[in-house]
Each structure stands twice: as C-alpha cells, then as structure tokens.
Design a protein that fits this description.
One of its GO terms (molecular function) is glutamate-tRNA ligase activity. It holds the Pfam family tRNA-synt_1c. With 292 residues, this protein is an alpha/beta fold. It is built from 9 helices and 12 strands. The protein has 2 domains: 181 residues, Rossmann fold (3-Layer(aba) Sandwich); 86 residues, HUPs (Rossmann fold, 3-Layer(aba) Sandwich), CATH 3.40.50. The strands form 5 sheets. It has a 3-stranded parallel β-sheet. The chain has a 3-stranded antiparallel β-sheet with strand order 4-5-8. A two-stranded antiparallel ribbon has the order 6-7. α1 crosses α9 and α6 packs across α7.
C-alpha cells in the first residue's frame, strides 16, 4: 500500500455541486501530487436523506470531471456487520452505554449531554449508544489551518455512536471506514472542523492510528451561505466542465496557465497535480462560488 492514502466521501443526498467539487479536487490533487491513492466512499448510512440514483450520478460526475479513483467504491450501507462488531467491542469493554434521553432533556441541561445514563445499565431497546468519552480531545493540528481548538465541553461529551432509530452515527462510520481503508490523511471541507475532535477521541479509544487532517475552505453563495444540498445548491455544470474545473483550481490557489483554461479536464488535472502547492491553498474559511 502506498505511503499516502486519501479519499473523497460524499453522501448520496443529491448530485455534486460546486462546493463538493472543491473538496473532491482538493483531496485528489493532494493525493496524486504525493504519489498516493485516492479512494471514493459513498456515505449512505442515512436512508431518509438519500435521493434514489444519486450515488450513480455522483460517480458519473466524478468521471466527467476527470477525477478517477483507485480500487472499488466502498458503500457504508454494506458495512453494518463491521460497525456492529466495533459497537459490541466497545460495549464489552464498558466504553459505551445505552441512553434513552430525549433531545428535549439534553437541551434543558444546556445542550451538552450530562452522562445521565452512563451508569444506569439501560437495556438496548429504544436507546441510542453513546461513547464513554475518556479521551476528550479539544484541539488538533490542521495541516492547512494550523492549531484548531474547540469547546472543551463539546469535545469531551459522550457522543452518539448509534442513533435511537437504529441508524449508525457519522462519527462511528467515518472512523471505522477511514481506519479500515488505511486512510492516512483526510482532506475535506472545513464545515467538519468541529466534529474532528470527536473522531480523534474515538481513534484514541480504539487505540487506532489517527490520520492527519486538512480542511479546505468552503464555497458560499451570494447570500453568504455554504453551498450545500440543504441550501439547494445547483448540480455541477455538465456542459462546460473545463471552465468549471479551471474555476475550482483557481479558487484553490492552483491557477492554470491561460492556454489550459479551455483544455480537456485530463490535461488540466495533469498540470495541476504536478504544480500543486499546499501553501497556495487559501486559509480563509470561505470562498465566493461563481454565479451560474
């Protein structure tokens, strides 16, 4: 296995938009520039939020933009047995417990869970599973942004690993999959800065090697809101991919020579991979997305 393994892990709640492209391109350039693998994982563990056919659309969009991945695509929906094995391990080690506290109660105590159920030995039925968070990590080093500090109460909270409705929590699935796939560095948007401390806590709990983290700036619309599927960001332009790719590279601080602005995306990416410089990626938290 190469020394560097990166990944792009979209959720199939809709097609990729320009903000998604920034994260995909940033992670792709970093992996390819370092001679590493670039994997794609579909984070499809929340069926109520998923759009039928979106996973296939996303993979087609990546190919259309020249972002070809290594190996086979991993689907989180196919990893239930693995997640259950980790949950069973944590429970046997008394590193997790069942909790039936409603959101209303947690809100009443200030919004941070107060470990009410930690020693009550609740049965599994109609309960969430929470981590006994013995390794509350409230700071970490981001390879782009430097030292990141978060609220210590949030960082040390006994957070949920499996929801009360039976769905697996993002914090559990992302850590297990990144570990199992041998991910050495996680490159993603900085909207996930805060949850990173919880993921580091889980890595420590499981005695697993923690990957490096690199959080990219977010694309925002004219109203100052993050481009997201919830904010109805338009799908990637499929008619002028070279222009869109050139714009994404420019916003990431990796501008193309003028003669490549209209070149096929394969040529654009070949140049960008060879010329990639992390120090040129903006450290600002937000970037204005192009209007359509």
């Amino acid at each position: 296995m190469p020394a560097y393994v990166g990944r792009f892990a979209p959720s199939p709640s809709g097609p990729l938009h320009f903000g998604s492209l920034l994260a995909a391109v940033g992670s792709y350039l970093r992996a390819r520039n370092l001679g590493g693998q670039w994997l794609v994982r579909m984070e499809d563990i929340d069926p109520p939020r998923e759009v039928p056919g979106a996973a296939t659309t996303i993979l087609h969009q990546l190919e259309q933009y020249g972002l070809h991945w290594d190996g086979s695509v991993r689907y989180q929906s196919q990893q239930n047995e693995r997640y259950e094995a980790i949950l069973a391990q944590l429970y046997e080690q008394r590193l997790s417990y069942h909790c039936d506290c409603p959101r209303k109660r947690i809100k009443a105590v200030g919004g941070i869970y107060d470990r009410h159920c930690r020693n009550l030995a609740k049965p599994a039925e109609d309960c969430a599973v929470r981590l006994v968070n013995q390794h509350g990590c409230h700071q970490f080093n981001d390879l782009l942004l430097g030292q990141i500090e978060t609220d210590s109460a949030f960082a040390s909270e006994d957070f949920i690993l499996k929801r009360r409705d039976g769905l697996y929590a993002y914090q559990l699935a992302v850590v297990v999959d990144d570990h199992d796939q041998g991910i050495t560095e996680i490159v993603r948007g900085n909207d996930l800065l805060e949850p990173t401390v919880r993921q580091i806590s889980l890595y420590h709990t499981l005695n697993w090697q923690t990957p490096s983290f690199l959080h990219l700036p977010l694309a925002i619309n004219v109203d100052g809101n993050k481009l997201s599927k919830q904010n109805h960001a338009p799908a990637l332009d499929s008619t002028n991919v070279s222009h869109t790719m050139a714009t994404a590279l420019d916003l990431l601080g990796q501008p193309l020579p003028a003669e490549l602005n209209k070149a096929p995306v394969a040529e654009q990416l070949n140049y960008a991979v060879a010329a990639f410089e992390l120090t040129r990626v903006p450290t600002t938290r937000q970037l204005a997305a192009p209007c359509r």
